[in-house]
Hints:
The chain contains 3 helices and 6 strands. The chain is α+β, with helices and mostly antiparallel strands. The strands form 3 sheets. The chain has a two-stranded antiparallel ribbon with strand order 1-6. It is globular.
Amino acid sequence: MKKMTVEDKLALNVFHVDEENSHIEIDKDFTDEKEIQKLLLACPAECYTYTDGKLSFSHLGCLECGTCRVLSHGKIVKKWKYPIGEVGVTYRQG
Length: 94
C-alpha cells in the first residue's frame, strides 16, 4: 500500500471555511523556537509555517483537533474556538 501524504489525506475531507475569520489567533511575535517547533511538528494539517524567524498560521485546512491549543499552553495560541455554524471541517472517513 502506498503511503499517503498529508495532502492526500486532507483531500478526503470537506472544508467549509470562513476565509476572513480564523477560529485560531496566534501571537505572531512569539520567538521561542523550541515551542514553535512543537507546533510545527504536531499539527497534522501543517497549518503552521515558520520562515525567516516569523511564525504564521493558515486556518484554511485546519482539522480543528486542538493540538496546537494544548501544546502552546496559551503562549503561542492566544485564542482557539470552534468555527461558527456550518463552517469548518467535515470528515469523510474515520
